[in-house]
Design a protein that fits this description.
Elements: E1 25-27, E2 32-36, E3 59-63, E4 65-67, E5 71-78, E6 81-87, E7 94-97, H1 98-103, E8 107-108, E9 118-121, E10 124-136, E11 139-149, H2 155-164, E12 170-172, H3 174-179, E13 183-185, E14 190-194, H4 203-209, E15 213-216, E16 218-219, E17 225-231, E18 234-240, E19 248-250, H5 251-256, E20 262-270, E21 275-283, E22 287-288, E23 291-292, E24 296-301, H6 305-308, E25 309-310, E26 313-314, E27 317-319, H7 321-326, E28 330-332, E29 337-340
Parallel strand pairs: 1-9, 6-12, 7-11, 18-27, 19-24
Antiparallel strand pairs: 2-20, 3-14, 4-5, 5-6, 5-10, 7-12, 8-10, 9-10, 10-11, 13-14, 13-28, 15-29, 16-17, 17-18, 17-22, 19-27, 20-21, 21-24, 22-23, 25-26, 28-29
Amino acid sequence: MTLSGARRMDSTVRRSVLNAKTRRGRTRYFGILFSLLTTVPIPLFAAASKARPMQLPGYKVVPVHYGPLNKMIISANINGHPANLMVDTGADQIIMDASAAASFDVRPSQRGLRYIRFTEINGQILPVGFAQSLTAGTMNFGSSLVALRNSSISGHFSNRVEAGNPDVDGFLGLDILIRHKAVINCWTKLIFFKVDRSRPLQLASVALSEKFTKIPLRREKNGALTVPCSIHRQAGRLLVDTGAFVTVFDEGLLKSFGIALQPTRVSAHFTSGVARKISAGQINDLTIGNFRVPPEKLGAAVLPNFALEQGDTHISGILGMDLLFICHGIIDFDSMDLFLK
């Protein structure tokens, strides 16, 4: 959550509809695990009111829940086996630990004993497996390719899962979300998947009537999703990452604005194995698109270069689950817009 905004998370949920292809070659996976350096459990989002499931015309709705460290988790079924997948817009595709994938009968993507299809994630060449069936709730996604990471080689993957939530089996990425024109409601904990392409949702007109602000999403050359932002009238862009525990800015940027930073007991662990301490600073003039974010204490860290450079775009920071929840974020992969209120 934001470092000062947890008190807002028990607000009443509004009763309205709004509150209600894997590529060959290089694949981007920008996930972050923010670990609290304390043994005190944090009941993140636990106080939020439960949303009444709402149906959108032409969509199927699947509920999600928030686990420790703000992880948005969807209960799925892989090849007939129950699984928990973290919904992660920082991942291009489904990613699983190889040993976990084997327990779900996720096999090589060809008839022999060896994997012949591979993908590159953050500089690592990984084999690609094949899940014959993937479902969640009443939604059937069909078959799907799965990138496989070996925890004995990539220990940071295992650490990310175990530290974030021991019940997370893998990550549901943008391939599924974009293919099925998903609408993620971060506030009501519902994801809508489009099943009737002939029925337009017209979410924007409804959102504007509910006083949401529409912000265009841009997909960078490496697949990353970004939105425009501004601090101290300096324009920038933020990576939209539902796999990030908190919103965090590049520390050097905030220092250049003269924003005072205080150390915290929080650290960020990137999937490359890099760890960074997080500081906190009061930001009073952050805008995302045309949406003015209420003054908040937000995170700052020395972000590694691979995180700062998203395709040809140099980002200012990562928009995480804290602000997406507090600002009633809705991510619409049909219109490619983010809505905030």
